[in-house]
Amino acid sequence: MAEEIKSKVMTSDAGRPIGDNQNSLTLGDRGPIVFEDFLLFEKMAHFNRERVPERVVHAKGSAAYGTFTCTNPDLAKYTTAKVFENGKKTPTFLRFSTVGGEKGSADSERDPRGWALKFYTEEGNWDLVGNNTPVFFIRDPLKFSDFIHTQKRDPETNLKSPRMMWDFWSLSPESLHQVTILFSDRGTPDGYRHMNGYGSHTFSLINANNELFYVKYHFKTKQKIKNFTRQEADHMKSVDMDHSQSDLFSAIEKGDFPKWTVQIQIMPEAEAATYHINPFDLTKVWPHSDYPVIEIGELELNRNPKNYFAEVEQAAFDPKNIVPGMGFSPDKMLQGRLISYPDAHRYRIGVNYNILPVNAPKCPYASYNRDGSMRFDDNGGASPNYEPNSFGGPTQDPKYTERPTTYATATVGRFDHREHDGDYYTQPGNLFRLMDAGAQQRLCENIAGGLGQVEKRIQDLQINHFYKCDPKYGEGVAKAIGRDIKEIVKDEALVSA
């Protein structure tokens, strides 16, 4: 075999040199991702096929069926979606998961928790896919596979690597907000019932007047927040690797149905352009003082799956699945997921994943998609598989045409997200200051467990980030790894006396 020719310049799989591997190709710095971004799609398509057959991320999960009940009579001013009619009850399916661990990993690992919720509405399935955190580590999907690689196993040792994690985070300061959450008490929730869920991304709602409102979804547990300390989480690994699964299943089995209060934040479309925070940045939250939460209903889980593989392992959630009265946003991470998620499902469980019982709509549906591996229904029978046709096949209805979205004239390019927004420190600093002294100390000690194992140059860079969030944050982490903050923060004007 001829010797592989290696280049010092990063290229595409076909050898095309890459000039920017940090930023997706967008219409303006806040605009949507464009379809011509060959690099983003190549990276995500390759990433989605790296593991066979378990999910690349969110491999280990638990799920249950339930009901969403809308209790707010005033939502018609925001949306025509029937799921939000007052008193409407909609069947749901919610899958919880850890993110970075393999299928056999422990439920109590320090990790974000996935929150994938399917609403079987009368207008089709609505899939809301988020986490138990309102933010994420990155703001551009081009970096997603790079980030997840750092959470998986070292290609040489096949071990989890604090060095890879902290090297990436120290070079990606936009991760600070999520890192602060991850290493706080919230990074090790005591089961799935005792944590909140979030849609995380910015979505949109559209009313009968064709007015658009941007929206954030929140699910607040009614079981009260319960978290493990680091020591308790480590102990649970030796007691019950499947603690979250057994806790959820047992509670529902005995009729102790978990519930969440469902809330939204609403931002009128016009305000997004002038809001002082980029409302489409997944590393930031909308402060409740600016956009208060509005209670809209209750989610209850009340039925366990009968077959784990058929209903949980084969469950597929697509952020692209919305219903009339809803829309998306220029959130870059969301836009990347709109293509990445269905692509991953087609690879993992086949092109016909949408007609598997757990994924199929409960309302009438009709499509001209045919054939493909494992087609297990009548495949459309003798009906035509094309449109238009003159044989009475389903036809389009113009009333469901998507609302046009207007963007200011902008240039397509790879806009440096760090150049346009370098405030990585305000929100994680605010979060740190919300914690009591005990929680702050546990946060610093949790970080020290991994950061203390890596080179000093990585420690120095990361602790400087923490210090800019809040001096006590940087000092606490430095002390926890046995370092002197004055040896790390070189700008004497920054270092407290």
Task: Describe what this molecule looks like in 3D.
There is one protein chain. The chain has 15 helices and twelve strands. Helix 2 (144-151) runs antiparallel to helix 3, helix 4 runs parallel beside helix 11 and helix 12 crosses helix 14. The strands form two sheets. Strands 2, 3, 4, 5, 6, 7, 8, 9, 10 and 11 form a ten-stranded antiparallel beta sheet that branches. It has a two-stranded antiparallel ribbon with strand order 1-12. It is an alpha+beta fold and 497 residues long. It is globular. The mean pLDDT is 93. The chain has two domains: 25-136 and 187-362, Catalase core domain (Catalase HpII,  Chain A, domain 1); 425-488, no CATH class. The protein starts with 24 loop residues before the first strand and ends in a 9-residue tail after the last helix.
**Low-confidence spans:** none
Main sheet? 10 strands, antiparallel
Average pLDDT reading: 93
Strand content: 15-25%
GO biological process, one term: response to hydrogen peroxide
Binding site for heme: 341
Keywords: Heme, Hydrogen peroxide, Iron, Metal-binding, Oxidoreductase, Peroxidase
Catalytic activity: 2 H2O2 = O2 + 2 H2O
Overview in brief:
By secondary structure, this protein is of the alpha+beta class. Helices cover 28% and strands 16% of the residues.
